[in-house]
């Protein structure tokens, strides 16, 4: 069984993330969406548990071929723990590509048996990112066009 890890902060999970998972499932038998835990330098709007719960809700239509996990290790170490040789990443812009390519090369150096597979965003999702969704949420705007259908945003008050 080919398993891929889709790591990220997912603060919050967007329709762009959902699209990457759906496309990855056409290649891999299982995708583990791995939300980075709370003990990071990044300040998140939602706790790791809230992010994981929202992701699980969003991915219910994908059934057993998707798993959601929280992790607090290097991504390559998490891959080894979960017996995965693949990391998947979505790419929206050239800036994303440059960053993700650098990370992929570092991961390759740390663990030559783990490869990164890039999924370019669909044009209709290219402008959607978690930071935009967070900003809309902070001003109590409607984010329904930016998140997967059926996913409820955790309370931020």
Attribute tags:
157 residues, alpha/beta, Rossmann fold, 5-stranded parallel sheet
Could you give the topology of this structure?
Layout: E1 3-8, H1 15-24, E2 30-36, H2 48-58, E3 66-71, H3 75-81, E4 86-91, H4 94-110, E5 115-120, H5 130-138
Parallel strand pairs: 1-2, 1-4, 2-3, 4-5
Task: Give a verbal description of the structure.
- The chain has 157 residues and is an alpha/beta fold.
- It has one domain: 3-Layer(aba) Sandwich (Rossmann fold), CATH 3.40.50.
- Helices cover 34% and strands 20% of the residues.
- β1 (3-8), α1 and β2 (30-36) form a beta-alpha-beta unit.
- The chain starts with a strand and ends in a 19-residue tail after the last helix.
- The model has no long low-confidence stretch (mean pLDDT 94).
In short:
The chain has helices at residues 15-24, 48-58, 75-81, 94-110, 130-138, and strands at 3-8, 30-36, 66-71, 86-91, 115-120.
């Amino acid at each position: 069984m080919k398993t891929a890890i889709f790591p990220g902060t997912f603060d919050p999970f967007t329709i762009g993330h959902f699209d990457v998972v759906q496309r990855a499932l056409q290649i891999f038998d299982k995708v583990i969406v791995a939300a980075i835990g709370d003990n990071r330098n990044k300040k998140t709007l939602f706790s790791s548990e809230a992010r994981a719960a929202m992701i699980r809700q969003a991915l219910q239509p994908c059934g057993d071929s998707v798993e959601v996990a929280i992790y607090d290790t290097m991504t390559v170490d998490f891959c080894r723990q979960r017996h995965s040789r693949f990391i998947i990443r979505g790419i929206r812009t050239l800036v994303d590509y440059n960053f993700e390519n650098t990370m992929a090369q570092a991961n390759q150096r740390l663990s030559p048996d783990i490869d990164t597979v890039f999924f370019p965003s669909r044009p209709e999702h290219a402008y959607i990112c978690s930071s935009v969704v967070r900003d809309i949420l902070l001003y109590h705007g409607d984010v329904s066009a930016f998140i997967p259908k059926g996913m409820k945003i955790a309370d931020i008050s």
